[in-house]
Amino acid sequence: MDAAFSAEQGEIRRTLREVITKRCGPDEVKAAVRTPAGYDAALWAALAEQLGLPGLALPDTYGGVGCTPAELALGCEELGRALAPSPLFATAVLAAPLILALGTDEQRAELLPRIAAGELTATLAVPGAGLATALGLVGDNTGDWAGGGRAGGVQARLSEGGWRLYGQAEQVLDGHSAGLLVVAAHAGGFARSRTLLFLVREGAAGMVRARQTALDETRTQARVELRDVEAELLGDDQVVGQDVGQGDGQGVGQGDGQGDQQGGDRVDVPAALAAVGDVAATVVAAEAVGAADRVMERTVEYVKQREQFGRAIGSFQAVKHRLADVYVQVQAARSAAYYAAWAAGAEAAGFGGQGAERAGGLALAQGLDALRTAASEAVQLHGGIGFTWEHEAHLYFKRASSDELLFGPVHRLRARAAERAELFEEGVRQEAAVPHAAAELGEAV
Question: Which stretches make up the Acyl-CoA dehydrogenase/oxidase N-terminal domain (predicted)?
Answer without folding.
Answer: 7-119
